[in-house]
Write a structure and sequence with these properties.
Blueprint: H1 3-29, H2 31-36, H3 41-47, E1 55-57, E2 60-67, E3 74-77, H4 85-88, H5 99-103, H6 105-109, H7 116-125, E4 133-136, H8 140-151, E5 159-165, E6 172-178, H9 191-203, H10 225-233, E7 242-244, E8 248-249, E9 258-259, E10 270-272, H11 273-279, H12 282-292, H13 294-304, E11 312-313, E12 318-319, H14 337-343, H15 354-365, E13 370-371, E14 376-380, E15 386-389, E16 395-397, H16 402-417, E17 430-438, E18 447-455, E19 461-470, H17 476-493
Parallel strand pairs: 1-4
Antiparallel strand pairs: 1-2, 2-3, 4-14, 5-6, 5-19, 7-10, 8-9, 11-12, 13-16, 14-15, 17-18, 18-19
Helix pairs in contact: 8-17, 10-12, 10-13, 10-16, 11-16, 12-14
Length: 498
């Protein structure tokens, strides 16, 4: 064989080798990606051959599927509209899915391993058995109270988040983010319409697609004082121990004085720790934080859940942004007194999600035990038989001892009964809490916060909540407390039906 033919033969062999390698790569490595691609029309049609299961709460379906006459046999609908949008998310033909629609996608679609018996039966009957049903822990009344409270707040706030949980179990009773959105247009079978609806929401400067209850962090203001108080109680300060206070205090190395929200708040040289919580004494907590030190504060916050990167609401559930204490040290590693002082009143670089705030309140109410938050109560097969039951709540950690939790509870009750959180009170229940006002920017109004809990006459904690009103301005924390009280009251009223 002459040289040119030899070279041609080598080239052909190389090309066949590359073709063979590419064929194996496509069929093996890339097969699942291509099969599940949103651009694969055959997969889309097959997926919509089976009725997708419901997502329900309190006996009502808030995500369901109805039959159509078009190529895709079932249309996903959301009867609850914007009220449940940040919990349910959406299931779109071409955009994907979010929320519970994403985390429970395989079960709702009927393709989960837990439903394999149904699919085997379908092979013999020729049927397309529907997907499984997801039952949530939500209280309908509490969700109504949270949604309506945020939407119709009395201070004109247009952004915020609210979440309520059962302190004993971690079951989420309400979860709302404001502004919200209607997920129905995103589920349209007309992909052009769905894309246009999504782009409009995505480009909205108000950020309606953001889940502010779980995914957005803001400075928590004085609600962070509960973490500082916990550190103090563990380091020799009793709830009745006098701590330095005063109308104004300038931290060492800082020319910026820290003042209280009003001249009438702790102008004395000393107040008890309980009084400092009840009055929300900035100077007292700033001085206390500097005395405790950055490492002590950061460690106590970490024990409450700050810095946790992998927290989800339930196993493999909705993702949660990590709350942060930020830096309180100088470049040389030593404490920055000004930074520690500001951090001790929930400013500087401290950032928190509403969920983290609710978990702090729940820990105090639950005697020091912090439970993992979860949303899925049960998974039911297409025939409504139970496939999964969240019967055994999971404890995440124990940030404080029972004694410290009791002291914190007493101080938080004082803040509601005779302090800044009065608007959260509920007749017949012991309510504790802590308000927070946090600076956002020199040219923007302050954020308003409230974290709190409700305990029944038997001493049983029944609800813990956090409400955050972004850029709410004057009166924002009192309004957050009022809304929180209504959410907990609704959760209590609805507890028999969950």
């Amino acid at each position: 064989m002459n040289a040119p033919l030899r070279r041609a033969g080598v080239v052909v062999m190389v090309l066949f080798g590359l073709l063979f390698a590419n064929l194996n790569w496509v069929q093996g490595y890339k097969a699942d990606e291509y099969r599940n691609s949103d651009y694969n029309g055959r997969v889309q049609v097959a997926e919509y051959e089976r009725r997708r299961g419901n997502v329900e709460a309190g006996g009502t379906a808030f995500a369901t599927s109805k039959a159509t006459s078009d190529k895709l046999k079932y249309l996903r609908t959301y009867p609850g509209g914007a009220k449940y949008a940040h919990v349910l998310g959406y299931k779109s033909v071409n955009i994907g899915e979010t929320g519970i629609e994403r985390t429970e996608d395989e079960f709702l679609a009927g393709t989960s391993d837990a439903l394999i018996a149904n699919r085997i039966k379908d092979l013999f009957t020729g049927d397309e058995t529907g997907g499984g049903n997801v039952l949530l822990t939500l209280s309908k009344r509490a969700q109504d109270a949270a949604y309506n409270g945020l939407r119709d707040n009395n201070v004109g706030a247009t952004k915020g988040g609210a979440i309520a949980i059962d302190p004993r179990t971690g079951a989420v009773q309400a979860l709302v983010s404001m502004p919200s959105f209607d997920p129905n247009p995103l589920a349209s079978h007309n992909t052009n319409e769905a894309t246009a609806a999504y782009n409009k929401l995505e480009q909205d400067p108000a950020g309606p697609l953001k889940n502010r209850a779980l995914s957005e962090t803001l400075p928590p203001g004085s609600t962070f004082k509960i973490v500082v108080a916990a550190a103090a109680l563990e380091n020799g300060v009793g709830k009745n121990t006098p701590i330095p206070a005063g109308a104004s205090w300038t931290p060492p190395t800082s020319g910026a004085p820290i003042r209280n929200a009003h001249p009438s708040i702790c102008p004395e040289d000393e107040v008890s720790l309980s009084e400092a919580v009840r009055e929300s004494c900035n100077t007292g907590f700033a001085r206390l934080g500097v005395k405790l030190g950055a490492d002590t504060l950061k460690e106590k916050a970490r024990q409450f859940g700050f810095e946790q990167e992998d927290l989800t609401v339930g196993e493999d559930g909705l993702g949660v942004a990590a709350s942060r204490t930020g830096t309180m040290q100088n470049p040389d590693g030593g404490d920055n007194p000004a930074g520690v002082a500001q951090s001790s009143i929930g400013q500087f670089d401290v950032r928190m999600t509403p969920l983290q705030g609710a978990m702090i309140a729940a820990t105090v109410a639950n005697g020091g035990s912090q439970m993992r938050p979860y949303l899925v109560k049960q998974l039911l097969g297409p025939d409504r038989t139970t496939v999964y039951d969240a019967a055994k709540p999971r404890k995440l950690r124990e940030p404080v001892s029972g004694q410290v939790a009791n002291d914190l509870r007493d101080m938080m009750v004082g803040a509601v009964e005779g302090g800044t959180g009065r608007t959260a009170r509920i007749d017949g229940y012991t309510v504790g809490g802590k308000t927070g006002t946090a600076q956002s920017a020199p040219t923007r109004p302050d954020h308003g916060w409230f974290i709190g809990f409700a305990i029944d006459r038997n001493g049983t904690p029944v609800s813990a909540v956090c409400v955050q009103l972004e850029e709410a301005g004057e009166g924002g924390s009192a309004e957050a407390a009022r809304i929180a009280g209504r959410i907990m009251q609704a959760a209590i009223a609805d507890s028999g039906s969950r």
